Amino acid sequence: MPFEIFKQQFGELSEYVIHDTATENRCVVVPELGGIVRQLSLRKHLTLFSILKTPPTPQTLIDDTKSAGELLFPFASRIPDGKYTFLGKEYQLSKNEAGELNAIHGLVRKQQFHIEEQEVEADYASLSLSCGIDQPEGYPFKVHFRVKYTLFADGRFTLNYQARNEGSDACPVMFGWHPYFVLGNEMLDAWKISIPSTEIVTFDYNQIPIGKAPFHLDRPALLHQKAFDNCFIVEQISGKVVTQLISENQHVTLNVEQEAGKGKFNYLVIYTPPARDCIAIEPLTGNVDSFNSGDGLNILAPGNTAEGTITLSLT
């Protein structure tokens, strides 16, 4: 079989590698740091592209505060002042954003994930990991969170998440992924982007939604001199939505496909860091601050599950 999964050390961290020996495509996962993907390499023709930007050393990865590659659950983005109301009750989360203004990016960041399953088949290999949430401060619910990473022989990479309510009360859940993408050694200004949206979320001074507005941008549009730190409501013409990041100089396009529709990934955050050496393309199942607004929020009855899939590919 061309696929293999093996364990290796990255400094004091242990990581698992999903490897396709036929193409050299690989995915490197660090269970003890929130189950993040540290490296993802995909081939187009003769070129193997390393498409994720993450901190380069074990210590900088541990110390990272920019959420590179992190899984954001049971909420993503900001909750103002860490306060939310759910089914008539008020809750207070830890204000963990810089400056302690808001709660941000969930409760599984940097947490230990456990390997649940490894699969190696002729045309794919996958690694499933999980982390339990058991009534932490500000979120008195019990949820089993699971993520499955899969590399396919045709070059696709998928991230599938599942959240199951294991408690006795209904609970709110939202999921997002926070990867920073690169294409070769080019800077962001050389790329084009196609954003599958005609509606943008408007923010206040604290990056909290206050409404929605029409959004018009060429598809694709050159990123040169454009800056984004925005949330978009994606088009739901079909059950799948694709954001494209295009390098015409290298003749390669990164396709970030998210499931859309009821309970799926109906929101998208685009962020261009000041260094302009990468871009964050973040599929979300709910709007920023959905714990308060309810926009896109999944409410799970006891025993129920929410799930969805993100697919990456190069063309």
UniProtKB/TrEMBL annotation:
Any one GO molecular-function label of the UniProt entry: aldose 1-epimerase activity
Entry-linked CDD domains: Aldose_epim (cd01081)
Keyword Metal-binding attached: no
Alphabetized InterPro entries for the sequence: Aldose_1/G6P_1-epimerase (IPR008183), Gal_mutarotase_sf_dom (IPR011013), GH-type_carb-bd (IPR014718)
Source organism, top-level taxon: Bacteria
Cofactor: Ca(2+)
Biological process, per Gene Ontology: galactose catabolic process via UDP-galactose, Leloir pathway; glucose metabolic process
Keywords per UniProt: Calcium
Record's protein name: Aldose 1-epimerase
Naturally occurring in which organism (per UniProt): Dyadobacter luticola
